[in-house]
């Protein structure tokens, strides 16, 4: 009994999952989304094997400049979201909220440019049926845009309910959207 | 109040000290994004598809690594960071392989 009393308390063994920053479920979501978009990109390049010339010709109709600008918009938005978390952890609530507002506004800029891009295609009578390239283009960029919409809503919500844990989860979702885009952009817009 | 910047330090060292790792990550992402677009436009001027494809996907891998490490904070979990880096590298290599198959046929 005395031996038990004098024995130092052992800390429970740390699982490798405990090393992950933030919420475990958010990482499950991030990995799931990467798998879904990753499979989409592999399928895109797989179907391209059947008609590389047609894919190259279809890609010429994309607006590479606006997509590159959108990449800059999204990585800057991610930077603001990451800074918001740092600021909130330093109890700078007001500044953190402004950063979240900036991040979500840039999300809206991304969406506006995306709508312009789709409008440009509509003017050329390009639909998802025009070519398999555009089927994947609309599917992948449209699904990503849906995540951007969800991300903007989440950023507004965590700016309102601004405890650090909420901001961390919201910012992680936003970084996942960012991460998917930096893989989507080169494959769809740049690899001719 | 403000920063006291010693006059004898080179600008590179001063910038490194003033910029946080997060800000440096953001600047790196901007440079990598612009760089990949420039490399893609070089393909229009006759640079080989193998070289441009490899560089574009290498830059994409760097961007993904930066987001995971600095934005998502995986630098605090080195084993996870390495794991993600390896899986993403393998994924980018598969993408490059699929991209280059038509050029090899």
UniProtKB/TrEMBL annotation, chain A:
Domain Heme-copper oxidase subunit III family profile intervals: 26-192
Annotated TM spans: 24-47, 67-86, 98-116, 136-160, 172-191
Principal cellular location given in the protein's record: membrane
Gene3D superfamilies reported in the protein's UniProt record: Cytochrome c oxidase, subunit III, four-helix bundle (1.20.120.80)
InterPro entries: Cyt_c/ubiquinol_Oxase_su3, Cyt_c_oxidase-like_su3, Cyt_c_oxidase_su3-like_sf, Cyt_c_oxidase_su3_a-hlx
Topology in the lipid bilayer: Multi-pass membrane protein
Location(s) in or outside the cell: Cell membrane; Membrane
Any Gene Ontology CC annotation: plasma membrane
Single GO MF annotation: oxidoreductase activity
Keywords per UniProt: Membrane, Oxidoreductase, Transmembrane, Transmembrane helix
CDD domains per the UniProt record, alphabetical: NorE_like (cd02862)
Pfam families assigned: COX3 (PF00510)
E.C. designation(s): 1.9.3.1
Gene Ontology terms describing biological process: aerobic electron transport chain
Family: Belongs to the cytochrome c oxidase subunit 3 family.
Protein name as it appears in the record: Cytochrome c oxidase subunit 3
Species: Pseudovibrio axinellae
From TrEMBL, chain B:
Organism superkingdom: Bacteria
Record keywords: Membrane, Transmembrane, Transmembrane helix
Transmembrane segments: 21-39, 45-62, 83-101
Protein name as it appears in the record: Uncharacterized protein
Species of the source: Pseudovibrio axinellae
């Amino acid at each position: 009994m005395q031996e038990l009393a004098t024995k130092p308390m052992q800390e429970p063994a740390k699982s490798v999952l405990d090393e992950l920053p933030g919420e475990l479920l958010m990482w499950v979501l991030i990995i799931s989304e990467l798998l879904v978009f990753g499979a989409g990109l592999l399928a895109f390049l797989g179907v391209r094997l059947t008609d590389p010339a047609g894919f190259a010709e279809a890609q010429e109709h994309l607006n590479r400049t606006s997509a590159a600008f959108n990449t800059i918009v999204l990585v800057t938005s991610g930077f603001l979201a990451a800074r918001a978390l740092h600021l909130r952890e330093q109890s700078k609530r007001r500044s953190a909220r402004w950063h979240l507002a900036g991040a979500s506004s840039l999300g809206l800029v991304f969406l506006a440019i995306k709508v312009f891009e789709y409008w440009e295609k509509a003017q050329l009578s390009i639909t998802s049926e025009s070519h398999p390239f555009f089927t994947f283009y609309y599917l992948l960029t449209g699904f990503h845009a849906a995540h951007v919409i969800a991300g903007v809503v989440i950023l507004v919500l965590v700016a309102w309910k601004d405890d650090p844990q909420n901001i961390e989860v919201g910012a992680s979702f936003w970084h996942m959207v960012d991460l998917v885009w930096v893989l989507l952009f080169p494959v769809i817009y740049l690899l001719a | 109040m403000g920063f006291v910047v010693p006059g004898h330090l080179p600008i590179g060292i001063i910038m490194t000290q003033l910029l946080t790792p997060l800000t440096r990550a953001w600047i790196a992402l901007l440079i990598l994004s612009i760089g990949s677009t420039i490399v893609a436009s070089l393909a229009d001027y006759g640079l080989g598809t193998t070289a441009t494809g490899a560089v574009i996907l290498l830059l994409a891998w760097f961007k993904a690594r930066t987001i995971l490490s600095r934005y998502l904070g995986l630098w605090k979990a080195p084993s996870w960071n390495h794991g993600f880096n390896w899986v993403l590298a393998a994924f980018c290599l598969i993408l490059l392989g699929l991209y280059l198959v038509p050029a090899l046929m």
